[in-house]
Amino acid sequence: MQFESFIGAESALLWGTFLIATIMGAVVNKTNFCTMGAVSDWVNMGDMSRMRAWFLAMAVAMLGVSILEGIGAIDLNGSFPPYRGSQLIWAENLLGGILFGIGMTLASGCGNKTLIRIGGGNLKSIMVLIVIGVIAYFMTNPFSDSDQTLFSIIFYDWIRPLAIDLNSQQDLGSLISSENGATVRLYAGVVIAFLLLLYIFRSADFRGNFDNILGGLVVGFVVLGGWYLSSTIMVTVPDEDPMTLSGYYQEWDMVAESEEGKPSAGGPLSAQSFTFVNPMGQTTGYVSSGFNRAQLTFGIMALFGIIAGSLLWSLISRSFRIEWFNSVGDFANHFIGAILMGFGGVLALGCTIGQGITGISTLAVGSFIAFVGIVFGSALTMKINYYKLVYEEEASFIKALIASLADMKLLPNSLRKLDAV
Length: 421
Prior knowledge:
Layout: E1 2-3, H1 6-31, H2 35-45, H3 49-70, E2 87-88, H4 90-106, H5 111-119, H6 124-140, H7 150-159, E3 164-165, H8 172-176, H9 181-201, H10 204-207, H11 210-232, E4 234-235, E5 243-244, H12 245-250, H13 252-255, H14 277-288, H15 298-316, H16 328-347, H17 354-359, H18 365-391, H19 397-407
Parallel strand pairs: 1-4
Antiparallel strand pairs: 2-3, 4-5
Helix pairs in contact: 1-5, 1-11, 1-15, 2-3, 2-18, 3-9, 3-11, 4-16, 4-18, 5-6, 5-15, 6-14, 6-16, 14-15, 18-19
């Protein structure tokens, strides 16, 4: 897709993103595609149906990315965020994933679900969005009259030294073969996606559930659509080869006639797809700038699109309901959960969609680590809450934690003080 002007090309990116995000918002609301719900069904009922829907979205996005990269239609090596970066920030991926998993459980849903709930009339999720947005913004942007961010103050000095500098990119293909990384990545992506699909459709219950199949397929294709859209929009430059938006931005002084229409940053113009924590921070910056168009990004338009799509389906299905906190404890859980999601989502470089589907579609090792952290954090929190509910005053947090870790085979049963439930 080639455009005569940068503004035309960028507008196509922004409105195209809004359109496919609107589709995703409507379908996710309709099908109740929910990653936290998937973990909850698995932990509490042993039901893997919604987890299979999540895996289906992963498989579709992974297979699509592998094929499109294999034929040269897209190139995700310089993506935003840098999923395949040569520095493996495994500790940040893991800790961030765990914090995010805990947070989404306390706040009744991940970043994507928060937006879906807003579209459905849930006012609690507006508070969650604002808190995540503020935390995410200051994790990546310095405070006024300072060069310090929340990340540099709280995390950088002790967690960044744990990062591993690789001799290649961190995707599976490059790690297996530095010389033939692209080829190996293609085969690895196809094989992993095929194995996932075999596992997913082994279940007769899943095969018979239209909503789970629809939700997984649409979310997977939307993530793939985001990659394709952001990778293929080009700007025509006289006497030059067409440029990507990111490439044009880097050469702005050489190819543009003025500063008019120049975005505030070039990173968000790179190849990217759906993720929701960092865009919540971007939205905070956009609002605080007085809705300056230079601050508009793929992520912000995706956020607006998800809410719009969810609202549309809520009105069509007559399921729109205003909801508010039912107690002080409910408010506290959502508030603390939002804080943890803000910190965790930025540390992990993404959320259940951003790392669990978008990042994993690139076969980045860090994305798999973050995914494991998210599932572990969420599952552990659910188990602790269940023990405290069953045993009430007898179950202190420590007793519930030990019992939960014993259930997960991470501690010996001899240490537990509460019988398994």
